[in-house]
Specification:
alpha+beta, 43% helix, transferase, two-component regulatory system, kinase activity, phosphoprotein, kinase
Length: 391
């Protein structure tokens, strides 16, 4: 899972294959000056390649992970200093040392670690003659590596804010979609209570009305919080949220839809994550409701939905799997766009605004969302939640 978390973090930063950002370039130049070496590089290392996103003393390029010196130390992220790489068994046969690519002798690197604890690369300096790095220069290299990550984070958050603001005026239209399911549950419970011939004496009246009141309270809270979320551009109160508890509340709100579809829905092992409880409930509600709805249109088998989670480096990955028709790979990005729809031939009603809401909520929590194939035969919608501090 380490490579998966690293790949997702690198994708979020959007720096691979692009010209060096001026702020990033200045940091690599400062690293060379502070360490008094001719060459410094900022490397981003994925599961296959090393990408030099900024450099001084050479032209930034790409090499295989197998040839990378920094890839040998990234899985144990810490400051590394090597006076003469020819004498270090980790690097002696490396093509950057042997002359096949370069003739590195002195090598030092400090890891680039995201706020969620994922190492994505290094800030490294090197020279073609043996030498040592002073204590002060070693500390400075570590500080500069942290500043590189700070710049990448700032760029990422700025892009998210820009995208959020572009969609903000459309967000109010999505709120009603999020409220339909709890409203349907509320209406159903009230109708059952009203149909009771002796409401005052019916043994189940109190339970039915209590369930209706609970759904109404959740709906009211969701209205207020989602509209606040839209007004302030994606903010929310960050506390530790028990996703298992929120999922059970969702199943209560969706009980009428689940029963109507005769769906088998199971939720187990969901963690506590930092976030806004109402927004995360809306997220789970959309994902489970969609899974039930699309599984039901398949028609040939009983709808099956499984909600589960697994711990990954720096956070959690929650999945909602179903046995429906799935989502074709070319459509898996498009369905998260506002008003996007699936295949009309499937006969599913709705404008497709739920997944747009989901993506917005996930991004506001610093996470990612996507779709893959499910072992159940349909779609697997996954959400990654990074570890975050609470308010």
């Amino acid at each position: 899972m380490q490579d998966l978390a690293r790949r997702e973090a690198i994708e979020d930063y959007e720096v691979v294959g692009r010209p060096a950002e001026p702020d990033i370039q200045r940091l690599v130049e400062l690293a060379a000056a502070v360490c008094d070496v001719p060459t410094a590089v900022i490397n981003i290392i994925d599961d296959r390649q090393q990408h030099q996103i900024a450099a001084i003393g050479l032209s930034a390029s790409v090499c295989s992970r197998e040839d990378s010196m920094c890839a040998r130390v990234i899985d144990n992220p810490q400051l590394v200093t090597v006076p003469d790489a020819r004498l270090d068994e980790r690097f002696a046969a490396n093509p950057f040392v042997t002359g096949a690519i370069a003739n590195v002798r002195f090598y030092a690197s400090s890891p680039l670690i995201t706020p969620s604890g994922v190492p994505i690369g290094t800030l490294c300096v090197f020279d073609d003659v043996p030498r040592r790095l002073s204590v002060a220069a070693s500390k400075a290299l570590g500080v500069l590596a942290e500043q590189v990550v700070d710049v990448l984070e700032l760029r990422r958050l700025t892009r998210e804010l820009e995208r959020s603001n572009e969609q903000l005026t459309q967000f109010a239209g999505q709120v009603s979609h999020d409220l339909r399911n709890p409203l349907a549950a509320l209406t159903g419970f009230l109708e059952l209570a009203a149909d009771s011939p002796e409401l005052a004496h019916a043994p189940d009246a109190a339970e039915l009305l209590a369930r209706a009141e609970s759904s109404a309270a959740r709906m009211t809270a969701m209205i207020g919080d989602l509209l606040d979320f839209a007004r302030i551009g994606g903010g929310g109160r960050t506390v530790m949220v028990d996703l298992q508890d929120e999922a059970e509340a969702v199943l209560e709100d969706l009980s009428a839809q689940i029963a109507s579809a005769d769906a088998d829905v199971q939720v187990a092992g969901l963690p506590k994550v930092a976030g806004d409880a109402t927004l995360l409930r809306a997220l789970l509600q959309n994902l489970v409701a969609n899974a039930v709805k699309f599984s039901a249109v398949a028609g040939s088998t009983r709808p099956v939905v499984r909600v589960a989670a697994e711990h990954i480096t720096g956070g959690w990955r929650v999945t909602v799997d179903d046995n429906g028709p799935g989502v074709p790979e070319p459509d898996r990005d498009r369905v998260f766009e506002l008003l996007a729809r699936g295949d009309d031939k499937q006969g599913v009603e709705g404008l497709g605004i739920g997944l747009s809401t989901c993506r917005r909520i996930v991004q506001s929590h610093g996470g990612r969302i996507g779709i893959a194939d499910s072992d159940l035969g349909g779609a697997s919608v996954w959400v990654s939640f990074p570890d975050r501090p609470t308010d």
